[in-house]
Amino acid sequence: MSSELVPGDKLILRPLAQRLGLSPTPVREALLRLVSEQALALDERGSAIVPVMSAECFEEMIALRGDLESRAIERAVSLARDAQIAELEVINARCMDAYARGDAVDVILQNLAFHRAICVAGRSLLTLHALEGLWLRLGPSYATRIGAPLPRFDDVPHPHVRMLDALHRRDLQAAREAAMADVVASCKYAHPRGG
Questions:
Q1: Where is the GntR C-terminal domain (predicted)?
Q2: Would you put residue 97 in left (φ > 0), alpha (ψ -120 to 50) or beta?
Q3: Across the chain, which distance is largest between two alpha carbons, in Å?
Q4: d(CA 77, CA 166)
Q5: Where do the H-state alpha helices sit in 12-170?
């Protein structure tokens, strides 16, 4: 999810366990779980590998993400408490600071925190679980773009800002549109075909 791995990376059990400071058994179990969730695959030698995602698979996952992100923000519009919206403002400020610094890794981490907080504010925990599965599989696509210029929002406010405004106004349609704009910008940035 944090975009530390790129498609094609191999995760060799013993060096990975050593790097994490764990015994091989829990690392093996974690790798197998990630294989079962299709976040990793096994190569011909049984080593875990980050799969290369086709453009078609990426587009399907982005469409699913758009649907789920829209549902999450819709629920947050009606259920979020003022304190939760204030927390989203703080997370977004950290995200915008990361944008200003050009720190793509921190942007990714703060973006994940922002969208998690929207799900929590909307009491959308099943949606959050489904989104985390998508984020897990999409992370390597974003990793391939680390170092590339971040998306620019010169003509309109960043979609997070628009989502926050819609949450404050309890505007369902504006919130949904802002969530979809965020997903579209994300898709253009990380698309396997280059946007």
A1: 60-185
A2: alpha
A3: 55
A4: 8
A5: 13-20, 24-36, 55-79, 82-101, 104-121, 125-143, 159-169
Task: Work out the average pLDDT over 178-186.
Answer: 91
pLDDT for res 162? 96
Structure tokens at 106: 């921190």
CATH fold of the domain at 55-190 = Four Helix Bundle (Hemerythrin (Met), subunit A) (1.20.120)
Neighbours of 80 (CB within 10 A): 23
Whether the predicted pLDDT of 88 surpasses 90: yes
Order of strands, edge to edge, in the sheet holding 10-11? 10-11, 48-49, 41-42
Q: Report domain extents, the chain.
A: 10-49, 55-190
| Residue among 176, 150, 152 nearest 163 (CA) | 176
Give the residue carrying structure tokens 């078609």: 56
192 has pLDDT over 90: no
